[in-house]
Amino acid sequence: RERTSWNMDSVHWEAVRKTPVLELAHIIEKRGMHNMLAGKIKDFLDRIVRDHGSIDLEWLRDVPPDKAKEYLLSIYGIGLKSVECVRLLTLHHHAFPVDTNVGRILVRLGWVPLQPLPGDLQIHLLNDYPMLDTVQKYIWPRLCHMDQTKLCVLHYQMITFAKVFCTKSKPNCNACPMRAECRHFASAFA
């Protein structure tokens, strides 16, 4: 496909690929886990170039979605959440990424059931949530009927919601517009 301003990358990925790991780690230091992530980024970019001669992922748009997912998951260091982000946000596939923010919201709202809670623990005291892959596998059949655009909007809205209301510690439950439907709120203020 021809590259236009509409589909041009904002990052010069070949320059990133050629950057030494330590320098790349320094650049992304504020992100956290920067040393490990820098190596994974470079390994990913090197693998794409080895397999396809360039960093361009446009060829994945023409591959059946399940094959694109399978290929991306075969790359060391790339997990289900990252693959689903690439598929939804870059390839415009029908997908829904579940990161820690989205997973936390889904569990707190009760959209992903936790039955029974360990040791009769109240949900508002829960610190450890189910593995994200487990949440992903549970929620996807319930969201798969939505079109790609709505899935993308829902993903962004849930991340914003997590940063404004449903934070990991000290969630802003009293201001939350979802508190009437929230198991976490009901548990904390019952």
From TrEMBL:
Gene Ontology BP terms: base-excision repair; chromosomal 5-methylcytosine DNA demethylation pathway
InterPro entries: DME/ROS1, DNA_glycosylase, Endonuclease3_FeS-loop_motif, HhH-GPD_domain, HhH_base_excis_C
CDD domains xrefs: ENDO3c
Signal sequence, start to end: none
Cofactor(s) in the UniProt record: [4Fe-4S] cluster
UniProt key word Iron: yes
Keywords of the record: Iron, Iron-sulfur, Metal-binding
Molecular function terms, GO-annotated: 4 iron, 4 sulfur cluster binding; DNA demethylase activity; DNA N-glycosylase activity; metal ion binding
PANTHER family: DEMETER-LIKE PROTEIN 2-RELATED, TRANSCRIPTIONAL ACTIVATOR DEMETER
Name of protein: HhH-GPD domain-containing protein
Originating species: Genlisea aurea
